[in-house]
Amino acid sequence: MRYLKHISEQAELFNALGSEVRLQILNLLQAKGRMSMNELADKLGLSQGALTPHIRKLESADLVRINQDAMVHGNMKMCEPHLDKIFLVFSQETTRQNEYASHIRVGQYSSCEIYPTCGISTEKSIIGEVDDPRYFTHQKRFEADILWFTRGFVEYMVPCIIPRSSRITEFSVSVELSSEAPGVNANWPSDIYFSLNGMLLGQWTSPGDYGDVPGRFTPDWWLSNWNQYGLLKTLTVNEKGTFMDDIQISQAAIQDLNISSRTPIYFRFSVPDSAEHVGGLTLFGRGFGNYNQDIEFHIQYERE
């Protein structure tokens, strides 16, 4: 899987795909899985000399891999497809005037209280063992990009580097999340609560924990019966109240929070014991789920 966000990264890919011969090579490798250079040359009616530059372009764009097969006399070169998914992003991120934007990795919480089932993982491996809350305090947690628990909370200290003589007019957080079921279950409601500096902003009920198909960015080594992807949700607090994806969920307004450029800002995700549906929480960060993003925070302000 490869995620290309900038035009400069996409040029080499488009160059590699801009040939009928190279497209035929990719089709053959996708169908066969693995072929020798000799087999490819015979199928395409090309000489080895004519085939080689095409293979090199595909290898340079990370579309194929070349391996030496020691089981064959003479260490025959074998070709195989390397990427099964490529995602291209053409839109450019923009920051509005008088807006401070930041992103925090899932594992960079400042405090937590975790109850099983639970787990925390980097893009490469599980941290410690699943269902052991002690690993949520492991030093490697700062590298984590996914975590899940049945009840409890994680709280993040949000950067707020804005001019000191400013008034915060809006606060928003964007994150991919879902419930946490044993295994996966699309019908597993969970009441997820959101708080800022100890004040409850509101609650949203996640419909389930999804695993019907692999997440677009979830690593290939990830078990198929584990959390695969979530829903991308945006919580916004402004002078009119608190909104989840433009639907108001509470009257809690930005002026009620008493936050400023001089006060620390702590944002909490929680599933309390008192919730009607204690169905857990999964937070997906970069390298997991369908959106390949960290937890994104935006603070709008006015200069006073």
- Overall structural class, as computed from helix and strand content, comes to mainly beta
Q: In percent, how helical is the residue content?
A: 10-25%
State the separation between the terminal residues, measured CA to CA: 47 Å
Helical element count?
A: 4
Record field, number of beta strands:
17
Most strands sheet: 12 strands, antiparallel
Global outline? elongated
**Radius of gyration over all CA atoms, rounded:** 24 Å
CATH topology of the largest domain: Jelly Rolls
GO molecular function, one term: DNA-binding transcription factor activity
InterPro entries: ArsR-like_HTH, AsnC-type_HTH_dom, HTH_ArsR_DNA-bd_dom, Metal_resp_trans_reg, WH-like_DNA-bd_sf, WH_DNA-bd_sf
Keywords: DNA-binding, Transcription, Transcription regulation
Organism: Porcincola intestinalis
Describe this protein's structure.
Keywords: DNA-binding, Transcription, Transcription regulation. It comes from Porcincola intestinalis. This is Winged helix-turn-helix transcriptional regulator. InterPro entries: ArsR-like_HTH, AsnC-type_HTH_dom, HTH_ArsR_DNA-bd_dom, Metal_resp_trans_reg, WH-like_DNA-bd_sf, WH_DNA-bd_sf. The protein is mainly beta. The chain has 2 domains: 2-88, Arc Repressor Mutant, subunit A, CATH 1.10.10.10; 99-303, Jelly Rolls, CATH 2.60.120. Helix content is 15%, strand content 38%. The chain contains 4 helices and 17 strands. The protein has helices at 7-17, 20-32, 37-44, 48-60; strands at residues 2-4, 35-36, 64-69, 76-81, 86-88, 99-104, 111-121, 146-158, 166-178, 190-196, 199-206, 231-238, 241-244, 247-250, 265-271, 281-284, 295-303. Helix 1 (7-17) packs antiparallel against helix 4 (48-60). The mean pLDDT is 90.
